[in-house]
Amino acid sequence: MQGLAETFKALSDETRLKILKLLENDELCVCDIVAALDMVQPQVSFHLNVLKGAGLVKDKKNGKWIYYRLDGADMFKRFLILSINERVSETSIANCQKRLESFLKKRGAKQADYSREKTGC
């Protein structure tokens, strides 16, 4: 019963619902989520830790970066996340999606510039 209460407690916050929606299609690093939500990193990390503690997301460290994705191992939680994501309105997440896309484009351009600089291309 404790695990179920923890899961629903994690789902009771609008910011955490937005994070789940952002992670619906891809894994993201903390900095991506920070940019999308227009929040400071410690706040985002707190919400990610709550989601991780509830078994809704899992993380993977890659160098300095920590990437998060939905944890689909538990069928009940997977169904719960899918059901919630269907009900999160696109308008409530639209600004977050736009900020994320803009951030990823800028980061991609910077990485391409850095790569050209290093390789001389």
Short description:
By secondary structure, the chain is mostly helical.
Radius of gyration: 16 Å
Lateral strand order in the biggest sheet:
1-3-2
Number of domains: 1
CATH class assignment: Mainly Alpha
Can you name the CATH architecture? Orthogonal Bundle
- The overall pLDDT average reads 83
Q: Helix/strand-derived class?
A: mainly alpha
Distance, first to last CA: 58 Å
Main beta sheet: 3 strands, antiparallel
The rough form would be described as globular
CATH topology: Arc Repressor Mutant, subunit A
The DSSP helix count reads: 6
Order of helices and strands: HHEHHEEHH
Stretches with pLDDT under 50, minimum 5 residues: 112-121
The number of strands is 3
Proportion of helical residues: 55-70%
List the helices and strands and how they pair.
Elements: H1 2-10, H2 14-22, E1 28-29, H3 30-37, H4 41-53, E2 57-62, E3 65-70, H5 75-87, H6 90-119
Antiparallel strand pairs: 1-3, 2-3
Helix pairs in contact: 3-6
